Amino acid sequence: MYEDVKNEVKQSLFEADRVAITTDGWTSCSTEGYVTITAHLINKEWAMQNLVLQTRVLNESHTGINIGGLLRDAGQEWNITDKSPALVTDNARNMILAGRAAEFSPHIPCFAHTLNLASQKAMRVNSADQLLGRVRKVVSFFHQSPLATNLLREKQRLLALPQHKLKTDVCTRWNSSCEMLERFLEQQAAVEATLMSKDFRKGEEANTLKDCDISNAEDVVQLMTPIKMATTVMCEEQQPTVSVIAPLKAKLLSHLKPNEDDSAIVKEMKNVMVKDLSDRYSDVNDSLYKASALDPRFKELPFTEFEERECTYAKVAVEAV
């Protein structure tokens, strides 16, 4: 059965004009290291196919050289080396080196991961970190106090607010911090009414937030919502997403431009994200622009300068004949 399926996969790869490869390293519950390699292609019926080629144990260190060796071997085993496969990975240094070692080109870092890195840096600026810490303390207090939780439900009913629980964040997921702030703001009136109640004693960790904290939380949510939406689009899209990267990056950088009405916390967060995102993908702009030019939604390339646009159209025309 394995050989039958393998031959079918090989035939699909053979019939495809171009193939893209994604790879990632992961660790099992038994702490064994693995590397999974997946091929992506458009078949004869113009349908996208995602084919897991292999999951191999990597007992050696997950260095770029070792992972690059696995990629190179996979390219030869599945006869795709001559198709000049594009490679998509996260931004980890070892993955960047692996792409070079395997000579897969272009090597395009995952845009969702790129946004995650920039957003995590923004959430770690001092003012944002302190704000999150204060909100986290209040949320933790409610999670640890059944009495406070029951009283919160009562206040929610009185204020006609949704019967939602407060959310806590996960340090590795910046969007969970955004969701924590969103839920806190949604329930802020009920939270404040509960904390001001004389029905129970509370410690310092349950102090209500100041007006400036609420204002800052609203600013952070407003700033980060487009980033969160962009991440969702990239993660949930069922079609090829390479054509979306350049226009989406341009749109986000426009969103992050300084505004005279920006609060101090927003200015600081914008500055960090712009610094992180601006130079990303500069080495693969050529591939990104060509992909966008072939997408009816972005074919006019409004996010590029005139000369870049004309150059991209010329390159697409040459490759089409």
TrEMBL record:
InterPro entries: RNaseH-like_sf, ZnF_BED_domain_contain. This is Zinc finger BED domain-containing 1-like protein.
